Amino acid sequence: MGKKVYAIKEGFNFQTNEKVENKIVNTWSECLKYVKGVKGAKYKSFEDINSANKYLSEGSKLLKKEDLNYPEDCLHIYVDGSYNSSTEMYSYGVVAVRNNIVEYIDSKASKDSSKRNIRQIAGELEGAIKGVEYALDKGDRKVVIFHDYEGICHHATGFWERREQSSAEYYEKMNKLMNKGIQVIFVKVDSHTGDFFNELVDEKCKEKLLIQSDKVVEKWLLANSLNVSSEEIKQEIMKLAPKGEKKINVINSSDKKNEIGETAFEDVIKRYNENPKEAENLIFNLSGEEKNNFIIYLLDKCVQ
């Protein structure tokens, strides 16, 4: 067996205060110098330099929501996790959205029993598993998982080396689920940037741990409308945003084909006059069919 080499996709040089990218080193001690204490460091050991170079040249399967290159014609699931250091409890959250209608919410808190305290990461990994399980239970064959922790994607695909028991178990569970015939597309959402569904799942996680939130969900609902599939889902959201009750519309199964209506479109126009950036985010979250309906709605107003 030859001498190992170490490929560093992302690290940091604390001596020069510079980011380290796509670097190959010959010893573990040298590798450690660039990855120890670096959040999100990406590196891997190889038996030969050709394999190391191949690893550095491979692209990640991680997409970014802002790039708009993910499918819209399937179930969308937002996942997140949180952690309460005073109780050493973690929580996971799952919010399922289909055609811009919230159809499912799940969240739960548990004690962190891992050998190494991985804080909210435990919840984020569990939320992703729960999300794919839900999609399979509903008979879906394709699902988009939106997440803010990159490991949701990289540990599932094997792009990151699995050094912890938690990531190894997650890899096994996720791949077992994916082998049941469902296509899972991972999309990263930057946390706390105003993406409504990401903020919703974040606040559901905090709720389970009795952590005070910034009430972003309630603030959003005071200015915008939201469609949900049942009264139960509405009540779950009202726990976070009691003042937003009138803006949460329960869509009956017979009405879902209409998706969002004129009231919601009027909200978008009103918000655009007040805050164009926020309105752009609303339009961004519409499904393809809803965007078409919105264009028709605007054209109708022009000819009136």
From TrEMBL:
Domain Ribonuclease H1 N-terminal: 4-55
Keywords: Nucleotidyltransferase, RNA-directed DNA polymerase, Transferase
CDD domains the UniProt entry points to: RNase_HI_bacteria_like
Domain RNase H type-1 stretches: 75-207
Pfam family, one: RNase_H
InterPro entries: Ribosomal_bL9/RNase_H1_N, RNase_H1_N, RNase_H1_N_sf, RNaseH-like_sf, RNaseH_domain, RNaseH_sf
Gene Ontology molecular-function annotations: nucleic acid binding; RNA-directed DNA polymerase activity; RNA-DNA hybrid ribonuclease activity
Protein name as catalogued: Reverse transcriptase-like protein
